[in-house]
Amino acid sequence: MTNEISPATSRAAFAIGAEQVARRTVDFLSESLKDGEAAIAAFERPDGCWNVAVHFADPPDEERIRALVALVAGDEVAQAIAFDSIAARDWVEASLEGLAPVPAGRFVVHGRHDRARVPPNKLGIEIEAALAFGTGHHGTTRGCLLLLDQVLRGKMPRRILDLGAGTGVLAIAAAKASRRNVLASDIDPRSAAVARENAASNGVGNLVQSIRATGFSAPPFRTRAPFDLVLANILANPLRQMAPAMARHLAPEAMVILSGLLPQQTRGVIAAYRAQGLVLIRQIRIDGWCSLLMQNRG
Questions:
Q1: Closest Cα partner for 293 from 217, 207, 231?
Q2: pTM for the whole structure
Q3: Are residues 141 and 228 in the same domain?
C-alpha cells in the first residue's frame, strides 16, 4: 500500500504521568487542531506513564502547541515537549512495534506482519499505521467493531455509511461481514485516499466507495440515503452538531453507532440524538472511551 504522505513529518513528543491527563490532552488537541493538520497517538509505557506523539504534515507553531498542552497538562509538561522531524516510513514502522492483533467480536484488526495470526473463523482486517489513525488499538475503534458485530447478528443492513472513516477499518469490517456496498467519507482527503487503498488491499475495493466530504454535503449521501446503518467514530462536538442532518438521512429503525466520546460527553450526545427520535440501545466503555448504539424510532 502506498500512502499519500510526505517523505517526512514534524513531530511533537512529550510524556504525561497520569492516564486521565493524557487522555484529556489527546482529546483537547484533537478538538483544537484543524482537521487534517495533525495525527495524535498516546501509548502507555511499562512504568505507567504515557508517551504522546503529535505528527504534523507541516512544521507547527511550537509556541501554540506548548500553549495548548499547558492548558490541560500544565506548564512543566508543555515546556518539556520535544520537536523534531521523522521520516514517515520510520514512523509507520515504529508505530507498529508491539501492536498485537486486536480481536473485536468476529473481527480481528492486524498489521501485515500478523496476517498469519488471524484465526480461520474470524474476519481479518489488515490495516497499517499511517498519518490517518485507525489501527484498531484505540478503544473507540474496538467499541465500534463490537457494536457492529452485535448489529449484524440481528439483521443485515442494505445501505451502510461510515462517517469520518479515517483508515476505513469500520467500512472494511462492515463490507466484509455484510457483503453490502458501504459509503465511507472523511473530511481529510488523505484519509479518504488511505481508506480507498485499504479497502482494495482487504479485497472489498468493489464494495467500499471512499469520498472526501464535510458532514452530509456531498451528492453521494443523497443518492445512497436513507441509510440502515451509520458508523460515526468522530468526536463529541461534531456528533452533536450533525444529529439533525444524520436523522434526515436515516431509514426507519436504522441503527447508528457513535463513538469518540469521553464518559462525561455521552449524556449530551445521547440527548442530541434523542431529540431527533433515536433511542439508546447499548453503551460500552473501553480504555476510557465510550461507544453508543442507538436506533431511529422517529
A1: 231
A2: 0.72
A3: yes
